[in-house]
Every structure is written in structure tokens, then in C-alpha cells.
């Protein structure tokens, strides 16, 4: 069973959170509310999120300050942030959002379909990263078992070919997603996709190294 991705919704106004939930419910993912920057940071301590929708204007810790804290933490720095704002102070204000680490900056009122489409891209990218970690963990368990490459392939009923086939499917999906991001995503989105491709390439090299006669396995660092 595929685990649902978590999407963090941060806004101090309950009616705005309710509207976001209505828009994103069609994605059939787990929506988590936070009514302040402090509450959002607390949720990020224990939960993994595919994307964060962050209101700019909030009392106390505003969206820019919240984003700065998120980007300073190693655990959360790579989570995509989409800023939502009801005001528009021109290019300088928008630039400040991107400088704070946002992958997108959307002014209210926004098109529900466009917002849902943007969020779905990052949910899909998150799912690819989860698949990659699972494949790497499976391979690491086999390596930690101390089996020789040839024995691993024979003793597990062809584990290496199965892993290679699964990885090929993820590689193909990641390539399609990267092309979509290059055409419609921002620079941060493209960078995130490139990061995923580098991880996939490292896992592919590790799998190739396990093949009989290859001379051993590389270290895997997902």
C-alpha cells in the first residue's frame, strides 16, 4: 500500500485553511494544518512533508521568517515552499519570497486548478524520492547481510534483476518529471529534480557494481 504524502498548510486564518483543504482534497493526500509559523516549525520536527503552502502575512512570525527557519534546518531545507500572499508590493516583494527559498510565489485570489497542479508536481517528486530511499534501504540490507554479489543474485531468486527493473521504472518516471519541471517549474524546482536524478545515478552505479565480475559494491548514500 502506497503511503500518502503529507502537505503542510500554514495560515493564521481558519477560513483560508478550509479553502486550501477544499482545493487540495482531490489530490487524496494527507493535509496538515498549522495556524502560525511556530506551529509549522513544531510539525516539521517530527513529520516529513512533500510541500509546504505558507502564507506570507501572519502575526508574530511571518512567512518569510518561518521559511528562513525551515531552510536553516538540515532536516527540512529541501522541502519545497509555495508562498501565498494577499498583497502585491511589486517585484521586490516577490524577489524576497524567492530569496527566502520559495519555489513559487502565488498572489491571492489564485486559480484553484493552477495551485492544485503545482502542488501535485511536488507530491509526485516526493513520491519518487520515497521510492528511491526504499530501494536503497532494500539493497543496503542485502549488503549488510554479507552475501557475495553472485550469491545474492542466486540466493534471493534474482534480487538484483528485480531491483534493477524497479530502479529503471523510477528512472523513467523521474526523467519525465524533470522534463515537466524544466518546462513549467521555477529554478528551485528544477534543482530539486536534478538532486533526485543524482541520487538515482548513484544507486544505479551501486547496483551495477554488485553484478558478478564487477569487483564489488559502491557505498549508497540516499
Automatic annotation (TrEMBL):
Q: What are the alphabetically sorted keywords of the record?
A: Phosphoprotein
Residues where 4-aspartylphosphate is found = 55
Q: Where is the Response regulatory domain?
A: 6-123
- Protein's UniProt keywords contain rRNA-binding: no
- Keyword Phosphoprotein assigned: yes
- GO biological process terms held by the UniProt record: phosphorelay signal transduction system
Q: Which Pfam families match?
A: Response_reg
Name the SUPFAM superfamilies for this protein: CheY-like (SSF52172)
What is the name listed in the Swiss-Prot or TrEMBL entry for this protein? Response regulator
**Species this protein is from:** Streptomyces hainanensis
